[in-house]
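Need tokens for this chain, all 304 residues.
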Amino acid sequence: MIDPNQQYNYPDEDELSLIDLWMIVWKRKWLWLTFGPLAGVIGIYIALTSTEIYRSEVLLAPAGDEETGGGLAALAGQFGGLASMAGINVGGGSDTATAIATLKSRQFLLPYLLEQDLFTTLFHDEWNAETKEWTGTNKRRDESGKPTNYELFERFTEDVLSVSEDKKTGLVTLGIEWEDPDLCANWASELPVRLNDHLREKAKAETEKNLAYLEEQLKNTQLIEIRESLFGLVESQTQNAMLANAKEEYAFRIIDPAYVPEERIRPQRALIVLASGMLGGFFGIFLCFVFHFVDTAKISKIKD
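Here are the structure tokens for all 304 residues:
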């Protein structure tokens, strides 16, 4: 049996065996026995002081055009060319990619964030509640130090909101991550409803504009074939208007509503402590080899 405390003559580095490596590490065991627990203690501090983050999700399914069925589809096939020339969308509902892009857009999100006045919520680390003053030092801001609208949008989309689509099922998951579980659930519940309302109102405005255009063209057109086509387009736009008014869930149907999360998603305290201790131990082992090769180089220089 090998005694780790006995004097050991190391061979050349090219011939190091597992026993040699163990002796190198054991000779300066104080390094990894120090750095390992020390890093573990630091990991405990980080784990206990890190902000707890919760996540609430809502599962959505594209509303699609199933309610409109074959009527609009037939009209799209029959009058699609004329509608395209006029810049008119024959179909109803909302394309999933467009709806998701709208959900993450500045045009949609910023009014909601400003309406909720989320500056002090999202930038609470820069807000002094006692003095009612901003403590941030960003050079892009005015003298008050208040975050800009763009910073508000950027913080929400990068740190809070996440949207993912399952390409196989077409289902969309909207996730909200924040420190307050109740706010997570509120935001996750409100955004799909607000998105449906936004896209429905946009579709109604577009339909009204299209109908006004088509009616104007009917007044100025006497050819029977073109008038028949225009009447078909008017019918399709009228159905679009009825669909927009009737469908509460215009772009997305809520399959699984948002919930108030009970458990945090991070920090994972046990993992942080374990990883910190291991990194500290590996760093100590690394230093063992560094000191060994430095000593070996000194001995070789003396011999030379």
